[in-house]
Amino acid sequence: MSNPDALLVDIAAMVESERSNQMPLTVVVPGAVITGRLAPESLWNERVAEVLAASDHLKPFATLFTAPVTRDGGAAGDDVTPPVVRPTHLHLHVARILQGSYGLPHTGGMYRIAIADISSWTVGDLSYSDQ
Questions:
Q1: Residues 6+ apart with CB under 8 A from 86
Q2: Which residues, other chains included, contact 48 with Cβ-Cβ below 8 Å and sequence gap of 6+?
Q3: Residue 64 DSSP symbol
Q4: Are 95 and 26 in contact (CB under 8 A)?
Q5: What is the pLDDT of residue 1?
Q6: 72, 23, 29, 59: which is closest to 44 by C-alpha?
Q7: pLDDT value of residue 103
Q8: How would you write the pLDDT of the chain (131 residues) with one tens digit per residue?
Q9: Where are the alpha helices (DSSP H) in the chain?
Q10: pTM score of the predicted model
């Protein structure tokens, strides 16, 4: 989407501001339908860092996800209230790419998706049933 959906950006901003990780969402991006739960970027980064830190081969990359994030140019911990930053990405956890009658990975994964790439979306976590 060249002009990101303002409602979707508002939903992402609310998740970011309240540190909620329970909002189920399904998005359509080029080549995939992805379903999962929205998480604040900081929480998503923590989880990714934990997974990377547990791997001997990938441990050095964990530091990329543990660095403090400031988008207003100020230092982390400043007393100045930062301006509201409109999210540019969604951070999904317990997420699956829906392919046929399967969700990949089966247990869910961590996905970062550019809001500008989303062509459509719905609230809710889609799943398939064998019935």
A1: 9, 13
A2: 65, 110
A3: H
A4: no
A5: 46
A6: 23
A7: 81
A8: 467 899 999 999 999 988 777 899 999 999 999 999 999 999 999 999 999 999 999 999 999 998 765 544 444 555 555 566 789 999 999 999 998 777 888 788 999 999 999 999 999 987 755 44
A9: 6-18, 41-53, 62-66
A10: 0.81
**Is residue 123 a contact partner of residue 36, using CB atoms and an 8 Å limit?**
no
Contacts of 21 (CB under 8 A, 6+ apart): 15, 37, 38, 39, 40, 43, 93
Strands of 39-128 (E only): list them: 89-99, 102-114, 120-123
Write out the two tokens for 50: 């934990």
Q: What's the token pair of residue 75? A: 């230092």
Biggest alpha carbon–alpha carbon distance for the chain = 56
